[in-house]
Amino acid sequence: LAHHVNMSAQGDKKPYVFRRGGAVKRQKVHEERGHEFVAKFFRQPTFCCHCKEFLWGLGKQGYQCRECAFVCHKKCHEFVNFACPGAEAMELDADVPRKDHKWKSHTYTSPTFCEVCGSLLWGLYHQGCRCKDCGMNVHSTCTSKVPPLCGQDQTERRGRLHLDIRFTQAATS
């Protein structure tokens, strides 16, 4: 802020404050079931936590929730089927049974990616946590961001169809 003195015709001194305006670029927020998704560029290999496919691209490859760090493709954000655990009033569907995860520190022998934020679990030992019941792999810091849906399949439920179309030629007489 810059303060300048503005002199009026009568000689009164009034402080005038110049404020910067309009040059601030705001991120576009896409809200879906309590998640606040913003477009993001990922510096390291990252997987979509919804469909489990790799996020490709040179620009902003996908969306990340500002509250729970959930990462997904731009095409997948509208199909996320659980409420954001970071939202104030977390509400789950009534027909989905709730069950808390049972986390245990785990050492991975091969490269493994976090199923919440999609980034690699780094380190030589105790890189993250694994649920004893469903086998979900996450960073230790991401355990608080996981919804209580242990045992539920959280991958894509869009209902992709596999069509097997065969043409047969009828015999003509």
Sheet having the most strands? 4 strands, antiparallel
Quaternary structure classification: single chain
Strand content: 15-25%
The total count of helices amounts to: 0
Strand order of the largest sheet: 3-4-5-6
Order of helices and strands: EEEEEEEEE
Distance from first to last alpha carbon: 91 Å
Show unreliable segments.
Answer: 156-161
Number of strands: 9
How many whole angstroms does the radius of gyration measure? 25 Å
Overall pLDDT: 76
Helix content: under 10%
Basic shape: extended
Structural class: mainly beta
Structural overview:
- By secondary structure, the protein is an all-beta fold.
- The protein is built from no helices and 9 strands.
- It has strands spanning 2-7, 13-18, 30-32, 35-40, 62-65, 71-73, 103-106, 128-131, 137-138.
- The strands form 3 sheets. It has a 4-stranded antiparallel sheet, with no helix packed on it.
- The model is unreliable at 156-161 (pLDDT under 50).
List the helices and strands and how they pair.
Elements: E1 2-7, E2 13-18, E3 30-32, E4 35-40, E5 62-65, E6 71-73, E7 103-106, E8 128-131, E9 137-138
Antiparallel strand pairs: 1-2, 3-4, 4-5, 5-6, 7-8, 8-9
Pick out its properties.
four-stranded antiparallel sheet, mainly beta, three-stranded antiparallel sheet, extended, 173 residues, 0% helix
Quickly describe the structure.
The chain has 173 residues and is an all-beta fold.
